[in-house]
Recover the amino acids of this structure.
């Protein structure tokens, strides 16, 4: 048994001793999107700092706790706050909670994030369903000795985001007239926002939105056989005519304003998974 497997087993044992619930849906809440947690009827909250081998979130807008409860009467496990490569964590540490979720029984993962847009048809506040991603600018979390107990050495990534869940989300969007967009997410390391030339490059290679999360989590989830759905809230425009700058505070504000739509979408989506 590998060191990683030993650590995961210790983590899972600790969590299971704290909470006996066995949800099969996991949710990861991104920057400024933690208020969805207020819609969860909480059974148990566990701060990351108390969980063996768990990283601790250091980013404003990420509360840093594992939440067991029900969303729309469906049992879920939510991460209020995620981990990023730019915080100084290794890719393996970034995806450690996703692997722990797998061992806890999670079969479907719902990811959310705040993202910048390079698509001229998007505006701040839009919800963009991610149908693919470009991971060439991030470190792959599967580099190193493969954990055969988690997944294959060379997992196929031709369809990282589940088409059936995407279709269900679009139906929910039509129901509420949300006009969901659909596009490609470009993962970058951060923590700097991109230069204007970098935004143009991202658009040129096929990206629609860009952010500093999600890609590594998706890779680890697909490797572990978990179905993935991911959605971005557009919080800023990378390709713009104005000379203004982008700040993290503005990102959090834009995410907060669009969050009610995301909350409703997730509340309905868990009912059909």
């Amino acid at each position: 048994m590998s060191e990683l497997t030993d650590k995961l087993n210790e983590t899972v044992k600790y969590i299971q001793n704290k909470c006996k619930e066995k949800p099969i849906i996991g949710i990861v809440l991104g920057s400024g999107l933690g208020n969805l947690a207020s819609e969860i009827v909480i059974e148990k909250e566990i701060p990351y700092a108390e969980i063996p081998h768990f990283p601790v979130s250091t980013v404003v807008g990420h509360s840093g706790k594992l939440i067991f409860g029900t969303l729309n009467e469906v049992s879920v496990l939510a991460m209020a706050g995620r981990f990023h490569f730019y915080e100084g964590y290794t890719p393996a540490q970034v995806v450690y909670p996703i692997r722990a979720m797998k061992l806890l029984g999670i079969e479907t993962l719902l990811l959310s994030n705040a993202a910048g847009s390079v698509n001229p048809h998007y505006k701040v506040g839009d919800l963009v369903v991610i149908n693919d991603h470009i991971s060439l600018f991030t470190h792959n979390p599967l580099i190193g000795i493969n954990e055969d107990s988690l997944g294959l050495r060379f997992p196929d990534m031709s369809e990282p985001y589940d088409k059936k869940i995407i279709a269900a989300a679009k139906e929910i969007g039509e129901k509420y007239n949300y006009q969901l967009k659909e596009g490609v997410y470009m993962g970058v390391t951060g923590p700097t926002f991109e230069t204007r030339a970098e935004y143009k490059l991202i658009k040129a290679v096929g990206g629609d939105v860009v952010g500093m999360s999600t890609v590594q989590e998706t890779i680890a989830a697909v490797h572990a056989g978990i179905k993935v759905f991911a959605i971005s809230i557009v919080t800023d425009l990378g390709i713009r005519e104005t000379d203004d700058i982008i700040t993290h505070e503005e990102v959090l504000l834009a995410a907060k304003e669009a969050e009610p739509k995301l909350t409703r979408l997730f509340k309905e989506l868990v009912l059909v998974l």
The CA atoms of residues 39 and 192 lie 32 Å apart. The helical segments are 3-18, 91-94, 96-104, 163-175, 196-204, 215-223, 248-269. Strands lie at 25-29, 41-47, 65-71, 74-80, 108-117, 127-134, 181-187, 209-211, 227-237.
